[in-house]
Amino acid sequence: MTNVENTSGTFPVTKTEDEWRRELTPEEYHVLRQAGTERPYTGEFWDTHTTGVYRCRACGMELFTSKEKFDSHCGWPSFWAPLAEGKVRYLRDSTLGMERVEVRCANCDSHLGHVFEGEGYNTPTDQRYCINSISLTLEEDAAAKD
Ligand SMILES: [Zn+2]
Fold first, then answer.
1. Confidence label for 51 from pLDDT (cuts 50, 70 and 90)
2. Which pLDDT value is given to residue 8?
3. Do the beta carbons of residue 52 and residue 139 sit within 8 Å?
């Protein structure tokens, strides 16, 4: 995890808030565009072990894979790394009286979740990308079925 940014910029996918509102459900809009958080243990993917690729629900960019997903038991889908650096961007988030690092899609700047470091998980990076299920869609790897 590098390059925590404080600035906004331009992104390959740019839409007005009206366009996002039309394309997303109210729940998706709240999390993706207003940095909301789904309640733990309620999302679609927190306990999913399906082999596949997770895409941004707002723009379709491939962001995470099942290879980096691990059981953090925190109630949200957790990954120890993104599919590749550059797929996501990082912003400093000081809301709720905490210093956290927000994770956004680098393609459309939609909110995904937060990343935490040094929690002691037995993973290659000791990072936990704590991502809202509602920010993602899962594309199952057809070859891995059965
Ligand atoms: Zn996106």
1. very high
2. 67
3. yes
4 has pLDDT over 80: no
Cα(11) to centroid(ligand 1), Å: 10
CB-based contacts of 23: which residues, under 8 Å, 6+ apart?
A: 15, 58
Which top CATH class is 12-144? Answer: mainly beta
37 Cβ contact list (under 8 Å, min separation 6): 31, 113, 132
Catalytic site includes residue 74: no
What's the 135 CA to ligand 1 centre distance in angstroms? Answer: 9
pLDDT averaged over every residue in the chain: 94
Distance 61 CA to ligand 1 centre (A): 6
Q: Which has the closest alpha carbon to 36: 24, 50, 45?
A: 24
Residues near ion ligand 1 (CB < 5 Å) are 56, 58-59, 61, 105, 107-108, 110
How many whole angstroms from 32 Cα to the centroid of ligand 1? 9
Q: Tell me the domain boundaries of the chain.
A: 12-144
The answer, yes or no, to whether residue 2 has pLDDT greater than 60, is no
